[in-house]
Structures are given as C-alpha cells and as structure tokens.
Amino acid sequence: MSKTNSFVFWGLYIVAWIIFVGLSIEAGGLLVNFIFSLCKPEFVQNLYQKLDLSAIYKESRLAFFGIYSFILSISILKACLFYIVIRLMHQMDLSKPFNTFVSKQISLISYYTLIIGLLSYFARQITKSLMHHWVVLDNINSFWEDSQAFILMGAVIYIIATIFKQGVVIQNENDLTV
Q1: How far apart are CA 30 and CA 76, in angstroms?
Q2: Residue 135 pLDDT > 70, yes or no?
Q3: Can you tell me the distance from the alpha carbon of 98 to that of 105, in angstroms, rounded to the nearest whole number?
Q4: CA-to-CA distance for 76 and 80, rounded, in angstroms?
Q5: How far apart are CA 73 and CA 78, in angstroms?
Q6: Which residues lie below 8 Å from residue 176, measured CB to CB, with a gap of 6+?
Q7: How confident is the model over 97-113, as pLDDT tens digits?
Q8: Contact 110, 157 (CB under 8 A)
Q9: Count of Cβ atoms closer than 10 Å to residue 56 Cβ
C-alpha cells in the first residue's frame, strides 16, 4: 500500500471514530431523554435536539412510544454500524485483506445498513399516516429522511460482501493447492 493510500485509510479511520462518538452521544442523549420522559412526562416538550413530541404524547402515548422507539432504534443502530466499521478498520490486515473476519464484518455492515434503511422507511411512512390523523410532526423527519440512501447503500454493500466472501473462498482454495 502506498503512503498516500495509507494516509487516506488512517484519515478515514479517524473520521469514523469522530462519527462514532457523535452518534453515540446522540443515541445516549435520546436514551436518557426517553427514560426522563417515562419518569417525568412534562419533560417531553424539551427532548434532545429540540424535539418536541408533546402534542403527540397528549393525543396517544402508544404513538409517542412507537415513534420514539423508531428514533431510538435508528440512532443506536447507526452507532453500532460505525462501531463495526471501526472494528473492521482496526483489525484489518491491509497486506492480506481477504480473510473470513473482514468478510463477516462487511456482511454485518450491509445488514445493519439495510436494517437502518428499512426502519427509517417504515418510520417515515407511519409518520406520514399519523400526520393525516393527529398532529404535524415535521421536526422528526430529520431522523429518517435518508432512508432510501441507506437501503441502496445496504444493497450495494451486500453485493460487495458477497463478492468478497467468494474471493475469500477462492483464496483459501489457492492456498491449499500451493
């Protein structure tokens, strides 16, 4: 690997750590707010990132917990996704990248990305249907506005994971014949 590629790889490793820390803070903040909202319902209007779900909380607690569960699940899954990316980049041997560990980590990344995209898509559709019945929830669309991008990215990463897995099988067969 050339020095430029190595520099870019380690630069992306640092960026992945920064994103992971940011996503973990967001997921932790949302989780703490969720626990606070269970103990003190008047706190619902002052949730993390100026998220005001007090109107829907007054209308239906089931809808509130459903929407908040989507927000919390998506946040936690995004943090887990970047943890897997960091673990992959940390333990990957760049001189021999075709091994079963890397193949499994790339498969996990594709699954997490696809699940995030599907959950975001379902949450967006449910939110749209709730907008017709009760309250306007425009402030929560930022949590799942990129659902289609995650679904597409998950599909592409799955294809790459499948090709990578086949490459590992071929390399193992070649190592056994030599």
Answers
A1: 9
A2: no
A3: 12
A4: 6
A5: 9
A6: none
A7: 888 999 999 999 999 99
A8: yes
A9: 24
